[in-house]
Design goal:
The chain is mainly alpha-helical and 529 residues long. A four-stranded mixed sheet has the order 1-2-4-3, covered by helices on one side. Strand 3 and strand 4 form a beta hairpin. The longest helix is centred in the first third of the chain and has 19 residues. It starts with a helix and ends in a 5-residue tail after the last strand.
């Protein structure tokens, strides 16, 4: 009788919708309810013994007869269906944690993931990309949190949610970069899964993603992609990620530490795989902020602190950056020099185990400058600032770099000093805080492309923003804060649309709007919020 009771209790926590157990009879349900109510009222010391005795009495059988009946029931074949998709009408964020709450079931997920990694690394091409994505959604059941139709197979890619489609494109990018087949096509019959950035794809299939061509690392990379997609979803952030305003990577890390049951795919990984993922999430920044030098030495320092202590994490991090960049550039023809900058960034990040973060970052600037026969020496803060400004503008012809050099040198001395201080001397490592300026690259690119504007007005407006940012943010900085984010979301649009006449561009009025995560957003006069 005790074994019967223990067997019943062993299935606790598994909902009727997750496993299709045969339904209980009304008589059995009523008897169980009465026994459980009695337990609540009496609070017996031997709970199992009390329940077993009560169930035996309800059965009307003697102890020996009850034992024989139990043994007979145990010998009967019992079948149930483990559903692979969240049933229609159920909340995936409630269903998945209950469905995948058992070590044996997690082992099934691990086996499915192993089948997929083997398929990717195989010399045979994947014949049906939708079927490949569908198998991934079953092997990574948390994908149901962000799928538009979690109870259905992958079908119409045009009907997917934004985060779902981004994850599918990243899964396809992993296949393009890691497949063992020589017949991989960058195009796909589904335009949403095609990659026009052929030069970047070829480089990914070369040395950059070599580290991901082992089943263990590849499996961790697929889980990382899924976690970043989850973190980008507002519903996931609200439920499991620490709040709607959490950045995607921070939301994923919060869920890992505080909502373990919601992430069965992460829980089933080895400790080494988990550490790779944690390190990559902590250090993550997109490749385009590296290429444009919006990234600062403080980004390199964080990468060094998070990645270097974890064996293989730097290479794993670069695989993640390249996959992310392939998705971002999927519909664009990427120039060869941009691919070179991705490789250069990987090389400089790869030196973090030997060099300090400022030194590795300086090497990146030096290599960029050498393409135009410029030579940076360690103490030349002015030239380093100019190189960053040239990288902001995104123009790789030497004439454009020479024009930026002339524009900076023609600025008043005070403005030149602001640029040297805020773009170089303050690096977030030896002098803090450094400003991280998302949007500044698109701003300078638009300004330099607009013949009515050019670099000088943009430089003057930027120096005003940098000077005022120090005064505005002084009271909100944390002790020893290394980096402060100052977003420029509308400067590019304003520079692109600027025409001569009216208020000079450099005199555009602006204000700072605080962000919940810290830092500020620059609002230009006339911006619609």
């Amino acid at each position: 009788a005790r074994r019967a009771c223990a067997a019943c209790m062993g299935g606790r926590g598994i909902p009727n919708g997750a496993m299709n157990w045969p339904p209980l009879s009304s008589q059995t349900s009523a008897a169980l309810a009465e026994v459980l109510r009695d337990c609540v009222n009496k609070k017996p010391k031997d709970l199992f013994g009390h329940v077993a005795q009560a169930l035996q009495e309800k059965s009307g059988l003697g102890a020996d007869e009850f034992e024989r009946h139990f043994e007979e029931c145990m010998r009967r074949p019992r079948t149930y269906v483990l559903e692979e998709r969240c049933p229609a009408g159920m909340d995936p964020m409630a269903w998945v944690p209950m469905r995948y709450n058992d070590d044996t079931i997690l082992l099934t997920l691990q086996q499915r993931a192993a089948e997929i990694t083997s398929e990717i690394l195989s010399a045979l091409p994947v014949a049906d990309m939708k079927a490949y994505l569908d198998r991934l959604c079953i092997a990574l059941p948390e994908m149901m949190y962000i799928r538009s139709s979690p109870s259905e197979p992958v079908a119409d890619l045009r009907a997917t949610s934004p985060e779902e489609l981004a994850a599918f494109q990243a899964f396809r990018a992993v296949y393009v970069g890691c497949s063992g087949s020589e017949e991989v096509s960058f195009d796909d019959e589904h335009v949403e899964l095609s990659f026009l950035c052929e030069a970047l794809c070829r480089e990914a299939r070369g040395s950059i993603m070599e580290a991901a061509r082992s089943e263990s690392v590849l499996e961790a990379l697929l889980v990382l992609i899924m976690l970043r997609a989850l973190g980008a979803n507002e519903g996931f952030r609200r439920r499991f990620g620490g709040g709607a305003s959490s950045p995607p990577e921070q939301a994923a890390l919060y869920a890992i530490e505080n909502e373990a049951a919601a992430l069965p795919s992460f829980q089933r990984l080895s400790d080494e795989q988990k550490e790779l993922i944690r390190a990559a999430l902590q250090a993550f920044f997109p490749a385009d902020v590296l290429i444009s030098t919006e990234a600062t030495p403080a980004h390199f320092l964080k990468a060094k602190d998070c990645l270097v202590p974890c064996p293989g994490a730097v290479d794993f991090f670069m695989c993640a950056l390249v996959v992310d960049h392939m998705v971002r550039c999927r519909a664009a023809l990427v120039r060869d020099e941009v691919v070179d900058f991705v490789k250069l960034g990987a090389q400089c990040l790869g030196t973090l185990d030997k060099h300090s973060a400022p030194r590795a970052y300086e090497q990146f600037l030096k290599k960029r400058a050498e393409r135009h026969s410029w030579r940076i020496v360690r103490d030349d803060l002015s030239l380093k600032a100019i190189v960053r400004l040239c990288c902001f503008a995104g123009q790789e012809d030497t004439e454009a770099w020479t024009q930026m050099l002339a524009a900076v040198e023609a600025l008043p001395e005070q403005e030149q000093e602001v640029l040297k201080t805020e773009l170089v001397r303050k690096d977030g490592c030896t002098d803090s805080p450094v400003y991280f300026l998302p949007g500044v690259a698109k701003f300078f690119e638009a300004a330099c492309m607009n013949q009515a504007l050019g670099p000088r007005p943009a430089l003057l407006l930027l120096t005003r923003i940098l000077k005022d940012a120090g005064r505005h943010l002084a009271g909100s900085l944390q002790p020893n804060q290394r980096m402060v984010t100052v977003e420029l979301p509308t400067c590019a649009k304003r520079a692109r649309e600027y025409a001569s006449g009216g208020v000079p561009f450099e005199d555009t009025h602006f204000t700072f709007e605080g962000m919940a995560s810290g830092g500020a957003v620059v609002r230009l006069a006339g911006d619609s919020v």
